[in-house]
Amino acid sequence: AGTESFGLFSCTVNGEEREQTHRAVFRFIPRHEDELELDVDDPILVELEEDDYWYRGYNMRTGERGIFPAFYAHEVVGQARDVGGLKRNPCWVERFNVQFLGSVEVPYHQGNGILCAAMQKIATTRKLTVHLRPPASCDLEITLQGIKL
Fold it and tell me: Which stretches are transmembrane (predicted)?
């Protein structure tokens, strides 16, 4: 089993030290020359966000550059900025307005992997039905107690 610490990767790009900005959450197999192969958990430096939900970036594990779909990677927060987040007030709530794509049952919580698996499953089934039922908008609440939709 891997360790639980998510240390951030950094590398030297064009002579300057850069920290990873994103982490790959799904495997992405390129179909075109300019696409970037991703493996789950790859450290990525996103250099440009294209307007059609594609990112242009650098895979710090492979040293390759290219474009990939934005939802294949999640933004990571640097250690320095993260310190404040650890002492969160117990009443802390974050609200997001999201589009509801579907729900899925998963076994009792097992960290990030379980969320990624659930999201991938929902996204896959959703692709087939999106034209029949456009997503409804709803509120996602994240608290220290859990996630509520």
Answer: none
CA angle 14, 52, 74 (to 5 degrees): 60
Residues linked to residue 5 through DSSP beta bridges, in sequence order? none
The CATH-assigned architecture of domain 10-75 is Roll (2.30)
Q: Tokens 């710090």 belong to which residue?
A: 60
pTM: 0.47
Mean pLDDT, the chain, as a whole number? 76
Which of 142, 141, 125 lies closest to 133 in space, CA to CA? 125
Domain with CATH 2.30.30.40 in the chain: 10-75
Tally Cβ neighbours within 10 Å of residue 64: 15
Within 21-94, residue ranges assigned H as helices are: 79-86
